[in-house]
Design a protein that fits this description.
With about 170 residues, this protein is an alpha/beta fold. The protein is built from five helices and seven strands. Helix 1 links the parallel strand 3 and strand 4.
Length: about 170
């Protein structure tokens, strides 16, 4: 079962989520870091973006940057059914070292509260956004504020994302 707080006036740092290994992760531990949040899937045409995400993370983790991945089956059921298979796939195929969370829903009536925060202006204070497909990206600044989003086809190493990390 998902573990989360459902307070209406939440900030990014109020969330406590479960990693793919079932360990509680307190988002407040990321204060002072820039964050790239991505909904991911193991059986999607965009799945090779894992390689770019890992490279981006390795190149920037020393500059207070984190990648947070959220597996989801919301688009064409392109994710494995259990967290263990997802974790194994990411390790075996891409050597992922950034944080992967338990599988969640990123749209619709079962949308996880964290994704409600990411996609609803009344919660993030900036913009209403629909998650259009796997590998949509959201940027969160070092103060926990929602900054922007990027379409699924945007490379994790796009000039705009890299410039933001280095700004």
């Amino acid at each position: 079962m998902n573990s989360y707080n459902t307070s209406e006036s939440q900030s990014f740092y109020d969330f406590k989520l479960k990693t793919i290994d079932g360990v509680e992760f307190d988002m407040s531990s990321l204060k002072g870091k820039k964050i790239l949040v991505v909904n991911v899937a193991s059986k999607c045409g965009l799945t090779p973006q894992y390689k770019q995400l890992e490279a981006l993370y390795q190149e920037n983790k020393e500059q207070n940057f984190e990648v947070l991945a959220f597996p989801s089956s919301d688009f064409a059921n392109q994710e494995y059914s259990d967290n263990e298979k997802i974790s194994s796939f990411c390790q075996k195929n891409y050597g992922v070292t950034f944080t992967i969370f338990e599988k969640v829903s990123v749209k619709g009536k079962h949308k996880h509260p964290f994704y409600q925060w990411l996609t609803e202006k009344n919660k993030n204070g900036k913009k209403n956004v629909s998650v259009l497909w796997n590998f949509q990206k959201f940027t969160i600044d070092e103060n926990g504020y929602w900054v922007d989003y990027f379409l699924p086809t945007t490379s994790p190493k796009s000039k705009k994302i890299v410039k933001w990390i280095n700004s």
